[in-house]
Amino acid sequence: MNALYSLWSEGTSLRLARSSDRGASWTTVPVARGGDTLYFPYLIARGNGELGMSWFSGLRTRVRANVAHVRFDERLADTLGAVPAHSYDFASFRRVDAGNIQRDTTNVTRERDTAGEYAALLFLRDGRLATVTTIQDSARQRYGFTFRPYRIE
Question: What is the DSSP string of the chain?
Answer without folding.
Answer: ---EEEEEEETTEEEEEEESSTTSS-EEEEEEE-SS-EEEEEEEEETTTEEEEEEEE--GGG-EEEEEEEE--TTS-S------EEEE--S-EEES-TTS--S--TT--EEE--TT---EEEE-TTS-EEEEEEEEEGGGTEEEEEEEEE---
